[in-house]
Amino acid sequence: MPRVSELFFKTAIVFLILGVAAGLQMAISGDHGAFPAHAHINLLGWVTSAIFGGYYALNPAKAERRIAVIHYGLYTVGIVIMLPALYWMLAAGHPEIEPVVAIGSLIVAAAVLIFGFVVFSSSETVRSATAAPAR
């Protein structure tokens, strides 16, 4: 499995654990005010990261490109900024943290655009972007 796939899958599992923990915290406390953050942790952290990992596992030539690692790093930084801030804003009632949520969201959006570029780039583009074969 390509390294970037493994990174995305491992990150996905971390967010699955955090999403389950957030859900349990809401259920135990009876306060479901942070349910949008819980949904974002599960959807962006767990599901989307796993899908990215699956895509790269199925497309190892694209996974070997440096842009795949940039995609991983940017996406992960974005969700690490956005999700805790969103949870804190909703669960603890801190609307002043919304600009941090916005910054994280913009970073995530940039990473998604990079992924779109990776998906729509042709195999020829992938080959030419990697090391040229020796003659």
TrEMBL record:
InterPro entries: Cyt_c_oxase-like_su1_sf
Keywords from the UniProt entry: Membrane, Transmembrane, Transmembrane helix
TM annotation in the entry: 7-28, 40-58, 70-90, 102-120
Lineage start: Bacteria, Pseudomonadati, Pseudomonadota, Alphaproteobacteria, Hyphomicrobiales
SUPFAM superfamilies: Cytochrome c oxidase subunit I-like
Protein name, entry field: Cbb3-type cytochrome c oxidase subunit I
Gene3D superfamilies named among the record's database cross-references: Cytochrome c oxidase-like, subunit I domain
Organism annotation: Mesorhizobium tamadayense
